[in-house]
Amino acid sequence: MSHVPFIVTTDWLAERLDDSKLRLVDATTFLKLPASGYYDIWSGKEAYEKGHIPGAVFADLLEDLSDTDAEYAFTLPPRKEFIKKITELGVGDEDTYVVVYDQGAQVDSPVVASDWASRLAWQLRYEGLENVAVLDGGFPKWKKEGRPVTTESGSYPKASFSGGRKPELFVNKEEVKQAIDDDNVIIINSLNEAAHKGEVNTYGRPGHIPGSVNVFFGDHSDSETLELYDDEIIRETFEKAGALDPDKKVITYCGSGIAATWNSTLLNKLGQHNVAVYDGSLTEWASDPDLPLETDK
């Protein structure tokens, strides 16, 4: 079948909700920023059980689709483990397409972004699955529009998965270190302005990776309609950061490699495909005292 867009609307999904080729996945995870210190994170499984889009299966990013033995939360799992879990959900090679959504970016926050959904979409692309989209506005927009909601768990036949990993979508801290002085690489900090300037200390050391530019992942959507702004507006934001230059590579990072995938997905949507995510992000970077951080204070 033809390739699905990187981002799809609620109207688009509603028209295809009964399509036997659709694999609809709820990737809800919850993050709450405390007044100080590291954030609280928990699985969205209970929220899924209380209500979700009909037909959707639940993908547990925290417990099943991250390396739970790793030092840092949301570290990419071994490929074999990821494929085992995702094919059990019915996602894989078959003549199907995937739409991922979530129930919001942060608890008790006005930020509108589908970054948990984009995280799973990015993981799927990294492992070699192309036909995957993120639902603009996610479950909050779907509910706001009065569309159907169910508590009945979805299920799909087990799938196979043969796609090859795409290493160009991922960077580690050594590659980020090398990129700091590389004029052909644009490094984007996807966190908010206060975090970028070093006015808050969430990760043990405040600040941003030297040379990185700040494009807050929560600045791309309308808080009233819950929709992404028009491409022209988002394009202008990324152009100011120099991120749409076709001759340059872009690296996005955030706190744990979640919000960074929302920026990377939007860059893909705008035609910039030379984008990699720093999976460890500031959780890893700030924990290493030998790695530099800059503040604007």
Automatic annotation (TrEMBL):
This is 3-mercaptopyruvate sulfurtransferase. The gene is sseA_2. It comes from Oceanobacillus oncorhynchi. It comes from the Bacteria. Keywords: Pyruvate, Repeat, Transferase. PANTHER family: SULFURTRANSFERASE (PTHR11364:SF27), THIOSULFATE SULFERTANSFERASE (PTHR11364). Signal peptide: none annotated. Residues 46-151, 207-294 form the Rhodanese domain. CDD domains: TST_Repeat_1 (cd01448), TST_Repeat_2 (cd01449). GO terms for molecular function: thiosulfate-cyanide sulfurtransferase activity.
